[in-house]
Write a structure and sequence with these properties.
Blueprint: H1 3-7, H2 12-22, H3 28-49, H4 101-109, H5 115-133, E1 136-139, H6 141-156, E2 168-172, H7 199-206, E3 210-215, E4 225-226, E5 229-230, E6 232-233, E7 236-240, H8 246-253, E8 259-264, H9 270-276, E9 279-282, E10 302-307, H10 310-320, E11 348-351, H11 352-356, H12 362-374, E12 379-382, H13 393-403, H14 405-410, H15 424-431, H16 436-457, E13 462-464, H17 472-479, E14 483-485
Parallel strand pairs: 2-3, 2-8, 11-12, 11-13
Antiparallel strand pairs: 1-3, 4-5, 6-7, 8-10, 9-10, 9-14
Helix pairs in contact: 5-6, 8-9, 13-15
Amino acid sequence: MPDEEKKHTITPEMIAVAEKIIGLTFTDAERELMLDGINEQLGDLEKVRSVSIDNTIPTPLHFDPRLPGMQFDQVKRKSKFAHVRAPQVPENLEELAFCSTGELAALIRSRKVTSLALTRMYLDRLKRHDPILKCVVTLTESLAIKQARRADREIAAGHYRGRLHGIPYGAKDLLAVSGYKTTWGSETHQDQIIDLDATVIDRLEEAGAVLMAKLSVGALAWGDVWFGGMTKNPWNTEEGSSGSSAGSASAVAAGLVGFAIGTETLGSIVSPATQCRVTGLRPTFGRVSRHGAMALCWSMDKIGPIARTVEDCAIVFDTIYGSDGLDQDGVDMPFNYDASLNVKKLRVGYVKSAFDKERDNQANDAATLKMLKSIGVKLIPIELPDYPITALGIILQAEASAAFDELTRSNRDDLLTRQVKDAWPNVWRHSRLVPAVEYIQANRIRYLAMQSLAKLMDKIDVYVCPSFGADNLMLTNLTGQPCVVVPNG
């Protein structure tokens, strides 16, 4: 037999070993019967691998968080934001660094402060604090100055585009910006230039926002370690900012930008927002186009804002949401924000077991419930659907392994700094052994969980839960539902 054929011949003994990996047992006769089919599959796998597939190519299988029979508001109404008064302009403009997006907008609209002045102030802070925080991959200084000057000219001429006009912001370096590197935080892509603007960047440009920097991302969207080091938490620079929207949360917390854009697949907005004590919005799956963003997990990736307040996040979301015809999972649904909503009329649940569990932040979380009660919210105790939610993480692992399959097969994953158990190189390798059958079965359990959570949501409008309480983070990322993270002490 030729050497090439020997190399690809599977034996019954090999099948017996593989059975231990997938947790099944076959008989000797069954193994013999499987031999021809498995050897043919090897040839098919080689043919599949011979096709070069760019990260931009999605799977044709769609995930939709909307279940049959669900009803949604289809009428778009003008969002009703709170009236924010422009603060006094201090002698030292740097005192405005921690203003909300709404306050900055009021200053710019009233022309008490120019976009260019704010931009230069934030650029100075970025340059001064980044050596410690390591939150900037690429400073887009020339672009920022150009955009700020344009904003000031337009506003002076009476052409005010809206609340983000002239507001300095930063974008997670998973989002492509024409003319600048898009590194994905990884040694393997640190010189990559993608010659287009992500849809989110386009929409912020149209709104007149000013891009200050491409902000750090944990390598290929995990953690806070990238090829430039570890991004730090401004509240305690002895610890990381968490990730993978590491730079976005750190920069907002340190007052280096007015707001930032992050992404989440499993906690990448929730975790750094919690760690850095800022507000983050993870939108419903499909609400914000991912065109021009790195793909990690096609059925779970989402893009959202990180800012100072919930309303700041609403202002940014009001600009970036909506289908663009380029993201196959994009949906067109109205966003009708109303700051005057009477929260006393909301049916608010809370995950009782998660709040009762002893943990580091238990006292602050208890104070949150007390605060809600004090403003007239009637809290309803709930529990989340009882499924093996953590085990469904194989969905993310398998899709991520496919997204970066070439790195594993070429051994270029060795270039990544983090080579530990809980890091992409190792997870990609062992996830190659997730059976396709179990990947599909996990998605079917996912659908059951979606149905159970939908039944629960029939009884309430919204619920509160500690950031990492119960299986809430994994569950809601799988079901595609939105969440808002707010600091509570």
